[in-house]
Amino acid sequence: MTINRRDFIKVLSFGAAAATGSNTLFGNSTISKTSKHTLSKDAVGILYDATLCIGCKACEVACKRVNGMPVENSEWEKMHGIEDAWDSGSDLSTKTLNKIKMYKHGSATVKNREKNGFSFIKRACMHCIEPACESACPVSGFTKDPKTGIVVWNESCCGCRYCEIACPYNIPRFEYDKAIPKVFKCEMCSHLVSVGGVPGCCDSCPSGASIFGKVDDILEEARKRIALKAGEEYAYPISTVHDKEKQIRPTEKYINYIYGENEAGGTQYIILSAVPFEILGLPKLPEKSAVSTSETIQHTIYKGLIAPIALLVGLAFSAHRTTRKHQLAEENTIHE
Amino acid sequence: MNNHKPVGGKILTKPFMVLAFLALIAFILIIKRFLFGIGSVTNLSDGYPWGLWIVYDVLVGTAFGCGGYAIALLVYVFNKGEYHPLIRPALMTSVFGYTLAGASIILDVGRYWNLYNMFWPKYANINSVMVEVAICVASYVMILWIEFSPSFFEKWRKGGTPTFVKRFMFVFIAIGVLLPTMHQSSLGSLMIIAGNRLFPLWQTNWLPLLFLISALTMGYGMVIFESLFSSVILHRPLEISMLKKLSAVMQKLLVVFLIFRFGDLIWRGEISTIFDIGFKQSMFILENALIIIPMILLFIKNKKSSPRSLFLSASAVLLAGTLYRFNTYLVGFDPGHGWHYFPSVSEIMVTLGIVSVELMAYLVFVKKLPIMPAIQHN
Ligand code: SF4
Ligand code: SF4
């Protein structure tokens, strides 16, 4: 065999370069299965309007009821024998999938104002259009319904918690206190939605702050609202975007932005507010999701397994030659 | 015919008993973890879901285990036969490093009974970097044991290694170079999906390449470290001239690493981030100082051949790689307001126990199996 050593090194380094990704930075095709452009027309979502939220937590109670989740007590309460009397978790947890939080500043006298004001914010899974949890999970522990776009957890989960590293909103919650743990997050009441129902939070909200609907419809509704002039009267639907029941009231001064429309590839849970989104604890995210960057790099390296196979062939050739040489040398020393 | 020999000597020495005691404590804590959940022994949280176990036991553990890969690359790919005597001891550290890293995943994964789903086409998610890591690490552990098998054959089988194993060894060697190339780079890619939750000094699309180069430097560092270490504790002659050459290879790789590391920071316009004083920045500076120190040590010509400066350089490189991994996965990772992580005592004890098992296995193996190059008596 007379394969030139130099050629061979070339093959090798090409394979190595391809296999480790030095040429991946130039690929920008997005490989994600869903994107804003391919999202199903039947995809559903929630519009949360913080200017309407009165902080009554009816949605939290309903969420627990319809999902069969237990109430939560703080360590202090448990120490003082208060258990199951009321619910007092302060963040999302394996028992709480939906949480109303409050922003307040200074004297906190006026609602929907940044300085000396306050605002509520409802935190739950955003049902990303390019869900990081789903992309990261090695064992399909999170899947996105192709029709509704709802992201749900599955029993195939191996508990590696890569989803928690990946989720840009820090949503999934893992049962660190259980020998047989599960992962929890809002699943947009997919069990109700699949039979034509409305998620518990939207169904129970008395002020119309959370409304359910098709993604296209809630986006349209949101656009309409941010275009309103502050103080102008508007008929707010109560629990779904097409709800006949409406509440007529003057609008607040909306921030001219729909949070979730573009964040990390877009989400199906979108938010309106009169105070800046960052101070409500919502992360500032680029439009291009880390998911698409990660998947693009990974798929470029391993496309059709061509680079690894090329590298393997080169390596096998080289190893074959060297081991033979060593064996011959060894045999020679024996015979001598 | 055999140019590797067992070192011999007593097994149950005092240090060995101390290690055994540490391993026992870890074993008890591991039982606790399986009975009461991961939170009962660790400080992990939904903000910091990965901690000491993943970063040290898996990431650093496999990088320390890259000696076999790094030497195989020299001997079989770059045809540098002179390093051949180093292969077996290097392979052995790799076998332990990887086997224990693989095993420790079971501790850290909450629903370990579902791990096989990673290899099950119905559930395996090809978009997940972790699937690639899992498949490559699992197969590499098997390959390592095959590559290492001649040590067992020579000890227990008349006639040594069977011919067919010898004949096909080149295939395993080739796969044994391919797999670490794939998964050591993917161990870097894992964090790309964390997006801007990873501080810009570490978050880059070049993570896979940086992790790969870093793993190789750690591989060479480990071989040098291990040779010098064994020469001291097992009273063996020094292979200083070979180690000197090896350190030159390591040094070149360190230069390449730094070029990519800083080139990337400059290109992304993040280089000035270093000067915003803070904890993350200090850790970044420490991480890179640990690379620059051995480079200077190795550049000073007359010091080059001193075992002491070789040992210091190798240790610094191992520390630098360790810190790079801790920084990328923990220090630079910010899940948002209110989350903190520092490993609990039990968590640290489990990691110490795993390291102890590794050291114990090392001592037993070198004393009982033909691994170390035979001492030449002229
Ligand atoms: S918000 Fe987090 S948990 Fe919810 S779909 Fe997006 S990535 Fe997944
Ligand atoms: S913890 Fe479960 S759902 Fe999350 S990434 Fe791991 S296997 Fe998937």
Short recap of the structure:
Chain A has 10 helices and 12 strands. Chain A is α+β, with helices and mostly antiparallel strands and 336 residues long.
Query: How many separate structural domains of chain B?
Result: 2
Estimate nothing, just give the exact number of structural domains of chain A.
2
Radius of gyration of chain B: 21 Å
* Average pLDDT number of chain A: 87
The run of helices and strands of chain A is HEHHEEEHEEHEEHHEHEEEHH
How do the strands of the widest beta sheet of chain B line up side by side? 1-2
Compute the number of strand runs of chain A. 12
H/E element sequence of chain B: EHHHHHHHHHHHE
Give the number of helices of chain A.
Answer: 10
Helix and strand content put the structural class of chain B at mainly alpha
Distance linking N and C termini of chain B: 17 Å
Specify the oligomeric state.
Answer: heterodimer
Mean pLDDT over the residues of chain B: 90
Global shape of chain B: globular
What structural category do the secondary elements of chain A indicate? Answer: alpha+beta
What is the H level of CATH, i.e. the homologous superfamily of the largest domain in chain B? Formate dehydrogenase/DMSO reductase domain
Strand content of chain A: 5-15%
Radius of gyration of chain A: 27 Å
Q: How many β-strands of chain B, per DSSP?
A: 2
